[in-house]
Specification:
- The chain has helices spanning about 15-20, 35-45, 70-85, 95-110, 120-135, 165-175, 195-205, 210-215, 225-235, 245-270, 275-285, 300; strands at about 60-65, 90, 115, 140, 155-160, 185-190, 325-330, 335-340, 345-350, 355-360, 365.
- It folds into 4 domains: about 10-45, no CATH class; about 60-195, P-loop containing nucleotide triphosphate hydrolases (Rossmann fold, 3-Layer(aba) Sandwich); about 205-265, no CATH class; about 325-365, no CATH class.
- It has about 375 residues and is of the alpha/beta class.
- The strands form 2 sheets. Strands 1-6-5-2-4-3 form a 6-stranded parallel beta sheet, sandwiched between helices. A 5-stranded antiparallel beta sheet has the order 10-9-8-7-11.
- Helix 6 links the parallel strand 5 and strand 6 (about 185-190).
């Protein structure tokens, strides 16, 4: 998966190639939209690279979305999916907390499941991945940290407990099923409330202009270290020595944040659509399907006739809160708004600590 936001070292590949004398290069990635292909070309400084696309459609993958409205429905649907799996299965969660909760629920329900996420020690991650890959364990609950090197041919089911941030991410993760060519089930359990989780994660993935300025000045931010390292590398590469150069880089980050919001809207539309699931996935990757319906997804099985929804990008919500406003948060108590960043609110507490919250969960303090 190409992504220098979480692997800043990718930004150094071009320099390494120059030192090696610009050798012949083969760049491989499991999934890539046209925009990602161009991003790879640009960062590798190989504008003339030939693209070989082996295709997206895999007829053995059965896609489905199950709508849920509360925790009880959500967990019951998960248990049904796990019980129906005729082999190894992965349950993907959007956050470490959700993965821990789901893992505990499955254990309580009598299911032998392993837990995998990026906060585990390296040895634990290695041991659990080996147990799953060898077949000693058949059920894995994980965040998207579980993916690199997972090429197990007999995974029969992938369940997404929460909506991913994009169709691209969803296709890549669900595509780990059925690599032996046999039928596999890929199910998304969709609760519209989960969209806010991805909106929050997406809003904190890229630095705002203010945060970029702080990084440039060497100041501390609350951004993940990988994001900070990537921003520093881009600042160095762009040789940002004046306001024009800085503004150009800040604008590029803003454009990418806008694109992330578009991707989430596409993913949400996919989950709510009556359109053929495979048709929606192929459309996302700009592949023209030779049919209107694949015949083996949930929507095709229902033979629905509803038209797919018209996609409209919702602009980032303008928060009603402003810096200096007194607010109150459940569990954390009272504080004041330090800054607003799209759907994120940065709150400073009396002890001087600061935390980011989704704007929906920050309430003005009424005296």
């Amino acid at each position: 998966h190409w992504g220098h936001d979480f692997r800043p070292a990718y930004l150094e590949i071009a320099a390494s190639l120059r030192r090696l004398g610009k050798p012949t290069l083969l760049a491989l990635t499991a999934t890539a939209t046209a925009d990602v292909v161009e991003d790879i070309r640009r960062h590798l400084l190989r504008a003339g690279m030939r693209v070989v696309n082996t295709g997206v459609y895999r007829s053995n993958l059965r896609y489905a979305v199950q709508q849920v409205t509360n925790d009880k429905e959500h967990r019951a649907a998960l248990l049904t999916c796990v019980r129906r799996a005729r082999g190894s299965a992965i349950v993907y969660c959007a956050t470490v907390k959700a993965a821990k909760d789901v893992h505990a629920f499955l254990l309580a329900a009598g299911k032998k499941a392993l837990l995998y996420h990026g906060q585990l020690a390296s040895k634990q991650r290695s041991e659990r991945q080996d147990a799953f890959m060898s077949g000693r364990a058949r059920l894995m609950v994980a965040t998207n940290a579980f993916g690199m090197g997972v090429d197990k041919p007999d995974i029969r089911a992938i369940v997404h407990y929460q909506v991913p941030g994009s169709i691209e991410a969803y296709y890549q993760e669900s595509g780990r099923a059925g690599r032996d060519g046999k039928e596999a089930q890929c199910t998304l359990l969709y609760n519209h409330a989960d969209r806010s989780v991805q909106a929050f994660l997406t809003s904190g993935r890229l630095p705002t202009a203010t945060e970029l300025r702080a990084i440039q000045a060497g100041k501390r931010t609350d951004l993940p270290e990988t994001v900070v390292r990537a921003a520093r590398a881009l600042l160095r590469q762009a040789r940002v020595a004046n306001e024009r150069g800085f503004a150009k880089l800040a604008r590029a980050y803003a454009d990418r944040a806008q694109n992330d919001r578009r991707k989430l809207e596409r993913m949400t539309a996919y989950a709510q659509s009556a359109q053929c699931r495979w048709r929606a996935i192929l459309d996302y990757f700009a592949v023209t399907a030779p049919w209107d319906r694949c015949g083996h997804c949930d929507n095709c099985a229902r033979a629905g006739t509803a038209e797919p929804p018209v996609l409209k990008l919702r602009p980032a919500s303008k928060p009603s809160l402003h810096p200096g406003d007194a607010v109150k948060l459940r569990r954390f108590g009272e504080g004041r708004v330090h800054a607003t960043h799209g759907e994120r609110i940065e709150v400073e507490f009396p002890d001087g600590s600061r935390r980011h919250f989704l704007s929906d969960y920050v309430r003005p303090l009424r005296r």
